[in-house]
Amino acid sequence: MRNTLLAVMAAGLVACIGSIDEPGGANPPTDSPTDPPVDGVGGGGTGPAAAEARQLFETNVFPVLSTKCNGCHSSAGPVGNVTGFVGRNTTDAYVTAVGYQALVGDWTPTGAPVLLKILPGTHNGTSYDQAQKDSIGAWLTKELESRAGDPGGGTAPGAESPAAATLRLTQEWSGCMTLANFQAAKMKDWGNMRANNSACKTCHINGEYGQIAADVDQPFFMTISTNKYYMAQYFSVDMSGGTASGKIIVNTRSFIGVGTGVVPHVEHPRFKLDGSTGMTALQKFYDATMAAKTAGTCGPSTLTN
């Protein structure tokens, strides 16, 4: 299964869960490119740090992605249905990019596929020079700052950085997950969740398109408990109260965006998250995992990346 996941990721961040509209389809986002992200875009804030993060992306990162990735990943028509995370223009570029969990991962420079797909070697003959790597890393760092409960951004001297807190919380959470709780919560119901007339497992049974939703317990559990990219689809880090009070939460934002066709997921089949069998299972699994964390009965991190 590990080889299958690596093969899927090597083929590109394909986007059954993230396919987007071609020209002439749904309207582009209405927020101005000079404004801070609208509430709900990528989970960002609305203060100065959020505005700076968006400016860093549009000024320094979007030109890199347009040059390096547009050939296969253009939102106007991604080749072979590969994830179309490169917006058609600066106006929609930011909303398109941050709407892909498979691109931003956990928002850290060491946990975002936008960097890790390229490093340490090349991806489909593509590489970044050091200045381009630094630009992407600086953008991700600022994104984390905007999510860390400090609208002005920045980290106090001696305090844990948002990136370090994200890594720590994710590692701890992985060690708190158990197969028994996963099975008891019936997480495999995600495989049979319906999006229009299709079961989620039709597109995602083996981790295709940066998302896994299988109707068997293994390797579903193994994937989200050992691979932080797949875990991020179900659980995210909330630092809205500050880095020191950061915690893991259910990633409803990602599922709602995909299920309701929020840009850039306008072509994904629709589904209702609230009250669904998948959400019921996910909440039960979250509660059981949090109970283990609270009780201090977790094991060591199980992450392999």
The strand order across the widest sheet is: 1-2
What's the end-to-end separation, in Å? 15 Å
Rg (C-alpha, Å) = 18 Å
How many helices does DSSP assign?
Answer: 15
Question: In this structure, how is the largest beta sheet organized?
Answer: 2 strands, antiparallel
Tally of individual domains: 2
Shape type: globular
Average of pLDDT: 78
Order of helices and strands: HHHHHHHHHHEEHHHEEHH
Low-confidence stretches: 1-42
Helix content range of the residues, please? 40-55%
**Share of β-strand residues:** under 5%
- Can you count the beta strands? 4
Structural class by SSE content:
mainly alpha
Question: How does this structure look, described?
Answer:
- It is a single chain.
- 46% of the residues lie in helices and 4% in strands.
- The protein has a two-stranded antiparallel ribbon. Strands 3-4 form a two-stranded antiparallel sheet.
- The longest helix is centred in the N-terminal third of the chain and has 21 residues, at 48-68.
- The chain is built from 15 helices and four strands.
- The chain folds into two domains: 14-146, no CATH class; 162-295, no CATH class.
- The two termini are 15 Å apart.
- The protein is mainly alpha-helical and 305 residues long.
- The model is unreliable at 1-42 (pLDDT under 50).
